Amino acid sequence: MATEKLASWAVNLSYSSLPPEVIQAAVSSFYNWVGCAIGGALHPTTTTASEALTPFFGKATSSLLGQKGARTDASHAALINGIASHVHDYDDTHLSTIIHPTGPVASALFAQAEALGGVKGDDFILALVAGIEAECKLGMGVWPKHYDIGWHITSTVGSIGAAVAVGKLMRLERTSMQHAISIAATQVTGLRDMFGTDTKSFHVGRAAQNGLLAAVLAARGYTGSLQAIEAKRGWARVVSTENNVDDQLATLGTEWEIARNAFKPFPCGIVVHPVIDGCIQLHREMGAEGGRTAADIERVEVRVHPLVLELTGKKTPQDGLQAKFSVYHGGAIGLVLGKAGPAQYEDQVVLSKEIVTVRDKISATADESLGADEAKITVYLKNGTTLTKHVQHAIGSVEVPMTPAQLEEKFVDQASVVLGAQGAQSVSKVCWALQGSANVAALV
Amino acid sequence: MATEKLASWAVNLSYSSLPPEVIQAAVSSFYNWVGCAIGGALHPTTTTASEALTPFFGKATSSLLGQKGARTDASHAALINGIASHVHDYDDTHLSTIIHPTGPVASALFAQAEALGGVKGDDFILALVAGIEAECKLGMGVWPKHYDIGWHITSTVGSIGAAVAVGKLMRLERTSMQHAISIAATQVTGLRDMFGTDTKSFHVGRAAQNGLLAAVLAARGYTGSLQAIEAKRGWARVVSTENNVDDQLATLGTEWEIARNAFKPFPCGIVVHPVIDGCIQLHREMGAEGGRTAADIERVEVRVHPLVLELTGKKTPQDGLQAKFSVYHGGAIGLVLGKAGPAQYEDQVVLSKEIVTVRDKISATADESLGADEAKITVYLKNGTTLTKHVQHAIGSVEVPMTPAQLEEKFVDQASVVLGAQGAQSVSKVCWALQGSANVAALV
Description:
Two copies of one chain form a homodimer.
Chain A: H1 2-12, H2 20-39, H3 44-53, E1 62-63, E2 71-72, H4 74-86, E3 92-94, H5 102-116, H6 121-142, H7 145-149, H8 153-169, H9 174-185, E4 187-189, H10 198-219, H11 235-239, H12 245-249, E5 261-263, H13 273-288, E6 297-304, H14 306-312, H15 320-323, H16 327-337, H17 347-350, H18 353-359, E7 362-366, E8 375-381, E9 386-391, H19 404-432
Parallel strand pairs in A: 6-7
Antiparallel strand pairs in A: 1-2, 3-5, 6-8, 8-9
Organism (chains A, B): Mycena sanguinolenta
GO molecular function (chains A, B): lyase activity
Domain MmgE/PrpD N-terminal (chains A, B): 4-246
């Protein structure tokens, strides 16, 4: 009875039952989502969708984040903000399933919260937690077969997470919540074959729309199957060849997936993160030790998990997109600039002489004894000195989470490009204040 | 190269290359779709969706058929008309895949044609044919495994058919058409577990929306995978365990699936049709032979394919919905009323004494020697006479298609309930005139 179990849990979840670390994780997840959505607002994948769909836009109740106060109906806002939040691949990650959990859920929830009006921050947090737990537990229930088959798990479970979140916000009773889950589950959106195209981030936005639509229909009495998840021809069996959904749902409310949500410090493939982390630390140490800079570097040796070279072994990236798949560029910006934000992945940085010079001095070797979030870096300086760094867990992992200050730097870095520095700081401040807010619509 | 093959074929298809029987089939398919969409316009599954989604409705460019001139944006019109056209399970059937082909395709196409304005009837027919061939060939390519797994094939392939049709109408070039196919393919909507709920017809409308969205995005340069159908983790492999898509696409333009499209004469499960057909013929013969009526009947014996009793063996249906699954009700309305339209499935008819009396005199026996579209009926009259009827192929099958006059009776029967008799006749007349029409938007 997975569908009933999930619906029942979500309907009965109360704010007072949320542990403090869960509330904190929800605030951080929301905060990081807003930063990513603003940061992706001007990306062509976002603006093209927005322009193409303008003829369908309805009554303007909900914000298009980072688009100068532009508003549209809640369904299109969910779609466009969802696309924007994922387009730089810079959003959050539930590491045990590689679901990006907040995009589908918050994009639907925030758009509907604005449309409804007067939604309190705590009610928003409660709905966000319900939606993220739902999608991550279901995702764990079909992982890894579901992903292996070729489904983009973020959006396939994201539709259901978004439905649960919006359903919770709209206070659906249990049976209606089952129908909402069902109507979302039948819209299975996202093939991995789309990776590398505009459609990858479209999946996130469409999942948000699917879930919002499901909840809004169910709230009016629309019916789906009451056993949509577990039926003989239900979601779990159709989208995966194996599942342990029941086991996963048994831990709802005792093991919180949102507390395991991780935030990317760098806008590139997560396997490059240990190298970047180590190189940024080495940049600081070189500066601290007698003002050394990257110009003093003779050569650099990097040892990494084999997957790193398989996925990100591009030696001479020619633009920002290719640079995301280059451990060499990642190391170089860390060493030269001490930073790896969106600005360091701009085309002109990727092709700049100072970066290319250091990039070409880096050699990388696969080392099966290392974990995927681990790296060993040795910098040989021209004066004969060597510096070494062993990153055991990269920043942004569950073991070494980003601090609030680091999250804020990431937020402001992204939002400044769109809103200017002052605007970014001001939105940052109000978004941190989600908990206890009287009206979440006032946040942006 | 299935994606490229399909896109290329659709882009190059010209009206002059369509055989006359294909054009005729397209006109009949469109005509039958309009009748079904009007006939389903007032069903609660349609009106609930319409009411729930009103807050999202955009600029009114496109008609909600049968809703007194109501209009909305093309995307929502595609959804709502798609739901309406399928809600009575009275639409068309591509018998070798049991796809209902016109719902997803025409719902998207007509809504977009109205929004674009000035679309000629012949261009509409051309796009409709392209979309229907695309969905049926892809459907045959994954049939039957895809359906066995649990996918509602009408909507899963319908999304792609709708994208091809709208893409054709918008004159996409080949690469854009590949992207449109791709963006549609990644939105896999429809689990069979939803059968028997509002969500079954939602699938048809959502498929129309998915396809329209895909085409509109692709027209603006949005990218998906260029190998979405055939890739290692592409559509065919993800949604089916076996496929022969390439073989099916090889017959594009030489074997026309739309010419195999069948129309339901009766608004109930297709397996009951041979019995209804035979009973209507017996009703006429009893009348012709000395004015006998159902009141003269002692008992009736029916022999049918075993599936008929498995699917429609309900002996004492209590309302119209249950009656759709009762071969006994089907036989009774044929014998008593000589007709089996939507009016004969109203609750009060199902419970009326004259129908119940005859219904209870019918016994049905499974006979493995009979085909699924075959039935043998023997009526024993009180005066000792017996009448027999052997229906070899039910009306509405490929072997015994509905005549234009019968299609028109079906159309008027459905549309009259919503538009009144005169309105129904007048819409019927203009819809028959699709070919050569200067502006399809003027049809409704």
